[in-house]
Amino acid sequence: MNKLALLKYTVLVLSIFLSYQAVEAHDKSFPEDGTYISSKRDVTGDQKIDIIQVQGTPYNKESKFLKAIELRVESNRQSINVPLESGYKPELALADLNKDGIQDVLVTVLTEGIERTLSSYAYTFKGGKVKDLEVPPSVPVTAQFLDGYKAEVQIEGKKPIVVDVSSRKQDYEELGIYQNGKLNESTELLVNSYTSLKPKTLFGKGKGLAGVQYVMGSNERDPLLEIKSFWSFNHGWDLIKTDVKPVKNK
User: Fold this and answer.
1) Is the pTM of this model over 0.90?
2) Total tally of structural domains belonging to the chain
3) Which terminus of the chain is more exposed, N or C, with fewer CB under 10 A?
4) Distance between CA atoms of 249 and 239, rounded to whole angstroms?
């Protein structure tokens, strides 16, 4: 190796080392109280390490509720800040969702504890500018009880699914939904929005998103069906497939 090549190699190694040292020092300046998440990846496409953080401010010292949540990307000593909705337990994931060769940022925030309702956000920071990729809509579902302790679930574009709910008949009779197996009145089921939304490798389509939502019976503690949906981004989100399975009565 000649002297010029050796000098270039030395400068490269030193710059990488200093970059990592700066990142580590930056991370250590934050409290370890669960109010932030931090990751290191190139999300701008400049082939340099960026710092991606989700920070939250607790409502008070005893509360797990974060009244102010913010997504921050620090790149080339510049900070891009994106305010998010308040909530609980934010999660951060990185994946190339829009298939441009650059990692995108997905953040989910739990907004309701029992129902596990999510607020979800997907962004690209290509070129140091933030752009909202949005997230897939919930799968369009209609559902209702039928006579004989059954429920019919209709997912758009699919044949109706009839579910046997006789294992819950005592509860439904006591609640007045049924009387000896006959519906007292027409009753629709509650279809939740996503309770989970995560990056997923889709066969032949690269990275996409997998969502989970539930069809509920009498209340939020009575899930009847789990619906998994798989989405791929192509100038917008395309629904690839859905998987539906009954939830066993506990």
Assistant:
1) no
2) 2
3) C
4) 29
Per-residue pLDDT of the chain in tens (250 residues, 90 and over written 9): 565 554 444 443 344 333 333 333 334 444 444 457 999 999 999 999 999 999 988 888 788 888 889 999 999 889 999 999 999 889 999 999 999 999 999 999 998 755 578 999 999 999 999 999 999 999 999 999 999 999 999 988 888 989 899 999 999 999 999 999 999 999 999 998 999 999 999 988 899 999 999 999 988 889 999 999 999 999 999 999 999 888 887 6
Query: Are β-strands 196-202 and 206-216 bridged in parallel, bridged antiparallel, or unpaired?
Result: antiparallel
Same domain? 169 vs 72: no
Those residues whose C-beta lies under 8 Å from the C-beta of residue 221, and which sit 6 or more positions away, are 114
Domain extent, residue 233, equals 141-246
In a domain, 26, yes or no: no
- The reply to whether 123 and 149 lie within a common domain is no
Shared domain for 125 and 145, answered yes or no, is no
Q: How far apart are CA 135 and CA 138, in angstroms?
A: 9
